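Residues determine shape. Next comes a sample protein:
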Amino acid sequence: MSDQIEAAGALVTAGLAANALDQPAGSGGAHGGACTNCGAALIGPFCGQCGQRAHLHRSVGDVFHEFLHGITHFDGKAWTTLPMLLFRPGKLIRSYIDGHRARYVTPVPLFLMVIFLMFFVLSFVSINDTVGVGNQDAGKAAVASDQAGIVKALADIDAGIVEAKAKGDTAKLAELEAGRRLVTTVGVPGANVSITDKIADEIEVAARSGKLKVNTGIKALDAKGSEALKNPRLVLYKLQTKAYKLSFLLVPMSLPWLWLVFLWKRGVGLYDHAIFALYSISFMSLLFIAGSLALTADIVTEAFWVPLLLAPSLHMFVALRGAYGLGVFGAGWRTIYMSIAAAFTLSLYFLILIVLGVFD
C-alpha cells in the first residue's frame, strides 16, 4: 500500500509539473490595466510580454480547481493530442516540428505525465496465477484440476520441512519454507496476485535454493548482489523507483539510432529526432498501461492481445512515414531497424537499472 501511495503522489507531482511546463507563466491581473507579473499593459486574456494570464484566481475553490486541472486537463489540449498520437502520430510530430503547436500538448509534459501514469498503474497491476493469454476456458479448467495438486504440494513441503529440521539441514529448510510461502501466497490457482510480489517470491526461492547466484568476477559486487537477493522486494522497489526517475534516459539513448538511420537525409536534425522519440515513447507507455490494465482485468482474448502486440511496429511505421515524409519502403525498413534498436536500447536501460538497483 505504501508503494501505491507513493506512486499516487508521484503521479500528482508529475501532473502538476507537466501542467506548469505546458502553460504560460501563471495567472494574475484582470482584463485591461497592467500585468501583475511584468507591468506591461494588458489588451487581452494574456500578457503580450511574458505570457501570464490576465485573470487572477483568489479563492480556495480555484486552488482545488487548478490542482485537478493540472493533473487531468492540460488546458483541453490532451483531447486533441491523444487521438493524434494514437491514430495520426506522423502528422502530430510533423505539425509540432513545423511550428503548429498551440493546439497540442508539448512532448516533454506529455512524456512526463504518461511515464508517471505508467508507473502509477504498475503499482496496482495483478495477474491471474493460472489463466494465460489465449484460452480462458482452459485456464479455468486448470484452476479446478490444480486444487488437489496444491494441497498435495503443501503436504509434501510440510513433510520435507519436518525432515530438514530433523537433519538440521538449514539450507534445505530455508528453501522449503520459501517455497511454502510462494505456494500459499501466490500459488493459489485463479488468485489475482501482485506481479511484483510474484516475481519477488520466485527470486527468493531461486536464490535460497542456489539456482540464482551473482557471479560478476568482482568479489565486492558479488557480495552486494548476494546481499540484495536476500530481500528481493526491496530490490524491486528500488528498481521501480529508479526506473521512473531515469526514464528520461530513453530519449538520449534513442537519438543515436535515429541520427544514424537518417544520416544522409537533408533537413533532418537531432531536434526532429528528439520530438519523434518523446511522442513515440509516450505512445509505447500508453500501450504498456493498456496491457497492464488488461492483465489485472483478466482480459485474455486474442482479439485484444494480438492487435496490442502488433501496435508498436504499426505505430512506428505510420509515425516514420508522416514525420519524415518517407515512402512505404523507406518507412518499412526503418521500422524493422528501429524495432531492433528499441530492443537493444531497452536491454541497456534495464541493465543500468539492475546495476543501480542491485549494487547501489
Summary: The two ends are 24 Å apart (CA to CA).
